[in-house]
Every structure is written in structure tokens, then in C-alpha cells.
Amino acid sequence: SRPSNGLLLLSLISHVSAFYLPGVSPRNYIYGEDVTLKVNKLDSVRTQLPYEYYSLPFCSPDKINPSAENLGEILSGDKIENSLYKISMKLIESCKILCRKTYGKHELQQFEAKIRDEYHVNWIIDNLPAATKYYTEEIGEDGSEGTYESHYLKGFPLGYVATEEDPEPDSEAGAAYIHNHARLVLFYHEDVHSFNGYRIVAFEVEAYSVKHQVDGNWNGAQTKLHTCTPLNPVRRSQPPQPVSGTDSEEIIWSYDVQWESSPIKWASRWDVYFKMTDSKVHWFSIINSIAVVLFLSAMVAMIVTRTLHRDLLRYNSPEEREEAQEETGWKLIHGDVFRPPAFAHGLCVLVGTGYQLIGMSIVTLFFAVLGFLSPANRGGLMTSMLLLFVLMGIFAGFASTFLGKIFGLE
Fold first, then answer.
1. Which of 43, 56, 209, 358 minimizes the number of CB atoms within 10 Å of its CB?
2. Crossing angle (nearest 10°) for helices 393-407 and 344-370
3. 29, 179, 30, 184: which is closest to 93 by C-alpha?
4. How far from 52 is each of 22, 123, 271, 398, CA to CA, in Å?
């Protein structure tokens, strides 16, 4: 009967559980468990040319192990590798020394060149890219001071070039300084009613440049620093670490680890990155180009409309009916509409390619709306677009052949 079928359907629905796509399921950490930090490419908005992280002489492990990458990651220039950073769940670290290295003139010039080209460092923890948090002040309509709004930027700068307006002391205008101290701020979410352990939901990095001074003798990772202690952490007011103007420089690399609880759930941890200001997208140029195209298209449409309207009025006028027997104006080319073009083969190929691109875009957007192209699946969008482009070649071939038959091509 119908009531029994309805009860059966409700019982089946009650047993249905949600699922995660492969590669994007959450990971639960227990207290003290190791959290892996991986390094990614160095990128810049000025040169658009990515570099591997260890192409610069950073502190590197004895054996560099690259992570498995898909086709989309390779085409995007990603190069994910392991690092020396040691992080444990909910364990706070202060002034942790990574390594100490002495650099020659050539190595310092490498750092300086990348800093002047505004290169950014990209790190990954639990598949989350590092982000830099900064604030902008909203000025009121009456010119009064407003509230501060927070923004996020992917990665963090490799260093900076000091200016005359630089508020940091001991900075020389025009000199390059490297960020050799990083404060890692990791946010975790805990819900004892839903899962056991902790889930990482945000990863921020505060980069500092500081010329470290050793307090006593050097003792490897156990060395105490005069410029960084748990009670006096690194601040912006300390003398920065230069990489220009010297032939040799000793740099001590260090980092802090801070843990903070967050109400953000794991499913919403990518929301911050969606709202992130991407400096690679030049919105003003895009809007300007669209406005120019629309304006020119409207001008051409208006001219064509006025011309056709004038010709139609003249052809339908009784006074000029006898003169209209002779074909003039646009009627001279009405027969060319059904005439094959001079380069029919090229037109068929272009039309087929258009169908291929349109089909790829529609299917990609369809799967993106369904949630199959999650940003957690790094490189998935690029890989799916390439596969769909190849698959849509079937429809491109059909469209090109169909149009060629219309033109009478063999």
C-alpha cells in the first residue's frame, strides 16, 4: 500500500549518510601529533615566472622528497616538497631555530633579486595554503576615522625593499631585507559531539625580518637568541636582516608556532580564500576592455540598423519603385549569403573549435556547481578542463564536418 511504501522510503532516507570526495576528506589530529608543513613554489605578480622553493638557498632537509602531483599542478607550476619545520598539534613553539647559514655574495644577490621582483613564499599545512592577514582603514563619509577591515593575501612576501617612509628603524632606503622569522598562526576546530580530535581550519603567517644575535655560544637548535625569547618575541621595531650591500652575511632562520581555537567548521575553511584579494587579476583592465567592446559593438549595431532602415524605406517608397528595380545597396550582396567563403576549411575548423570550447566550459561549470571541483583538490580544475577539452573534440569534429557538408566541401 502507499502508506507502507512511504514509511519504507523514510526509513531508507534516515540511513543515508554524507560522503566526501576523494582527497578532500577532513583529517582529525590528536594532541601532540605531528603536523606536516610543505613548501610550494615562489611566485610573483611582476614576472609571472614561478620558481621552485629550493631554487633559493633556504634551509633544506638532507633529502628533498617531492609530493605526488597531478597534471593540473604541474601545469600550474606547483612544486610541493618537504621542509625542516617541526609542528605538533596544539604545542606552542617560541623562537624555534631552523638553521644558521652563511651566504656569499652570489647567494645574497639571488635573494635580493627575488625580493625586488616581489616574490611570495607559499607554504601548505593540511592542504591549506598559507595566508597573510592585513588591515585597511575604512574612512567615513565626513572624513573621520572609520573601522579597520581585515583582508587576506595568499602566501607571504619573501622580503621587502625599504623606503624613506619606512617606519622600521635601522632601515636604509633602497636596501633589500629578507623575512627570516615566521610566526605560524594555526586555527583549529573542536567538536566533541561530531568527531574526536582537532581539525585545522586556517593557516596564517606573519613574516618578520630580524638580525638575530646569539645569547652565548652556538648550540644548534638549542641555542638561545638575544633577539627572540618566549617573553620578548620578535617585533617590527627590531633591526632587520639585510641581503644587499654586503659580500657575506650570516642569517639565522627561526619561527614561532601559535594555536588558536576557531568556531569555523572544516567545511567552511575555504571561505576565506574565496574572498581573498588576488593581485594577479587586474579588474580595472578587464572592466575597461569589456566597456570598450560593448561601446564599439553598440556603435556598429547602430550604424547597420540605420543603414538597413534607410534602404528599406527607399525600396518601399512608391516614388522610387521604378528606380528600385535596379539592385543597389545591400541587395547587391544578397546572393553572397549562400556562396561558400574563400577559406571554407578554416572557417569549419574555427567553428568546431568554438563548439569544443563552449562544451568544455558548460560541463566544467556543471561539475563545479555540483561541488566536484573542490579547491582542496589542488590542480583538479586544470586537469578536468584538459580532459574535457579532449573529450569535446568529438563534438568539434561533428560541427566542422556538418558545416563542411553545407559548403559542399569534400
1. 358
2. 150
3. 184
4. 27, 12, 27, 43
